[in-house]
Amino acid sequence: MKKIKVMLVEDDPRWQREIVDDLEKESDLEVVRVVSTKEEAIEAAKEIEMDVILMDINLTENNMDGIEATFEIFSLGKGIKIIMLTALGDRDTIVKAIEYGAVNYVNKSSFLDILDCIREAYRNEVSLHPNATGAILREIRLKSLTPMEKNIYTLKEEGYTRPQMAQYFHTTLDTIGTHMKNISRKLKRRK
After folding, report:
1. How much is the pTM?
2. Which of 83, 191, 61, 176 is nearest to 131 (CA)?
């Protein structure tokens, strides 16, 4: 049986050990390289044959350089599947990672899910992990909104009231109410 060649890109030595130990217990997986920086990841992707990369998002202090590495590796055109492996869960980060070439986004604490994601990515049977699904669906749904509706939706998420939004946009409460109804109708239609 051909083993799935996996590279781990992780800067934390403890996580490196734990993830590699767990991956090496799997008879169909082979860890071909473990690196801890964006630069090492890109070089290894150029030089070594691999199928899947588990990529941490923050390789140096909250810089999200794992997403940058993902984009550069994806741009090589080698067909390497990249799974973001992180503790971060904010929507914008998830969407950006997928836009930059990741095929999935999994929390580090979901180890059994990581194994499934590796195998699915290798077989080109990618289904988004629940850690990513909500953010991607939200982004797709928001594309149906007009620019004004998106602005109102964002302010609503930030806790603005209708009177505050009316004041912010120099408009009436009725206009804000009409936009809110349109937003609700569009987002419900897409569920």
Report:
1. 0.72
2. 83
The predicted-structure confidence for 18-72, as pLDDT tens digits, reads as follows 999 999 999 999 999 999 999 999 999 999 999 999 999 888 776 789 999 999 9
Which run of H or E residues covers position 145? Answer: none
Q: Are the C-beta atoms of residues 8 and 34 closer than 8 Å to each other?
A: yes
Q: Which one, of 137, 190, 189, 181, lies nearest residue 162 by Cα?
A: 181
Least Cα distance to 149 among 191, 172, 177 occurs for 177
Torsion of CA 36, 55, 59, 107, to 10 degrees: -130
Name the burial class of residue 46, with classes exposed (0-12), middle (13-18) and buried (19+) by CB atoms within 10 angstroms of its CB: exposed
